[in-house]
């Protein structure tokens, strides 16, 4: 495809760890790398605070904290690429970390929904499937699709480098791009299915108020607020995933892939905003200690009520 034609600088004398092309398609920005590291450190600190203070939602914050640390490593690799853009290892490292980290964020989002319905009496009726199935199905789908994306990205880097050097590769860049595209497309579809489940749940909170029996009006309002926070953060992550899908469909060296401004606006910004929203309004803010299922503190316990 025309979108995969490399038009960037050529490295005439590559070192052992270098390619003859800049696989990014551009020289990564020093400013974006620094901003990425600093802002993800800040949200990591915020979620560490909630992790220590709120045992009830500890698993949620652990997932986000690990993802934030991966983002820090990814933007650190981009900083290294600013100085030495032809190094293949830095590109693969940043791509792996920045692509995989949102899997942990979406897992946290899935968990937050199960926390919501399991910690308000009667709220289990909001979901069209059980909380246990929400976690099992959507997390499994995310893991499998991310593996496809990593394989595709790695093959693109090696095949494009081989093409520029005039060597043969066992897959073409076009074939590798198709693997990456398949992973992103399935991931996007899976997340849209989750959004449908979430939107139905929000709709039912308004249509079934008299049958929910979630307690007093304060508890009812907290349930609605938590569901809206989940929706807002989900839409931000969906925006990021949709960008990756469009970028890959256009081609690895197409316009979207070779313009870092789009990466900053549609990859970095939605993710950092989602993590900031959860830092300001964590699930524990809406799940008071007087509410819901006694002893619900961890991922395994949140599904206990659903199994009964």
UniProtKB/TrEMBL annotation:
Keywords: Membrane, Transmembrane, Transmembrane helix. It is a multi-pass membrane protein. InterPro entries: RTA1. It is found in: Membrane. Its main location: membrane. One of its GO terms (cellular component) is membrane. The keyword Transmembrane applies. This is Uncharacterized protein. It comes from Kwoniella shandongensis.
């Amino acid at each position: 495809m025309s979108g995969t034609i490399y038009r960037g600088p050529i490295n005439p004398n590559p070192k052992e760890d270098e390619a003859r092309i800049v696989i990014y398609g551009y020289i990564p920005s020093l400013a974006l790398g620094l901003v990425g590291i600093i802002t993800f450190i800040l949200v990591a600190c915020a979620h560490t605070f909630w992790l220590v203070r709120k045992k009830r939602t500890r698993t949620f914050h652990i997932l986000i904290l690990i993802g934030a640390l991966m983002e820090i490593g990814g933007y650190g690799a981009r900083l290294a690429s600013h100085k030495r853009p032809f190094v293949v290892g830095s590109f693969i490292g940043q791509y792996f970390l920045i692509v995989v980290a949102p899997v942990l964020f979406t897992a946290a989002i899935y968990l937050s929904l199960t926390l919501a319905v399991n910690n308000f009496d009667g709220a289990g009726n909001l979901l069209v499937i059980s909380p246990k199935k929400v976690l099992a199905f959507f997390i499994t789908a995310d893991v499998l699709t991310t593996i496809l994306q990593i394989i595709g990205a790695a093959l693109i880097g090696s095949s494009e480098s081989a093409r520029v050097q005039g060597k043969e590769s066992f897959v073409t860049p076009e074939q590798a791009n198709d693997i990456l595209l398949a992973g992103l497309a399935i991931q996007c579809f899976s997340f849209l299915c989750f959004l449908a489940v979430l939107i139905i749940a929000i709709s039912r909170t308004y249509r079934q108020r008299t049958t929910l029996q979630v307690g007093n009006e304060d508890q009812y309002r907290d349930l609605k607020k938590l569901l809206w926070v989940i929706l807002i953060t989900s839409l931000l992550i969906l925006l990021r995933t949709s960008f990756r899908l469009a970028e890959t469909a256009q081609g690895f060296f197409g316009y979207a892939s070779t313009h870092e401004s789009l990466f900053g606006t549609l990859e970095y910004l939605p993710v950092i905003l989602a993590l900031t929203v959860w830092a300001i309004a964590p699930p524990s803010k809406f799940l008071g200690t007087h509410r819901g299922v006694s002893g619900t503190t961890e991922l395994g316990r949140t599904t206990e009520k659903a199994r009964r």
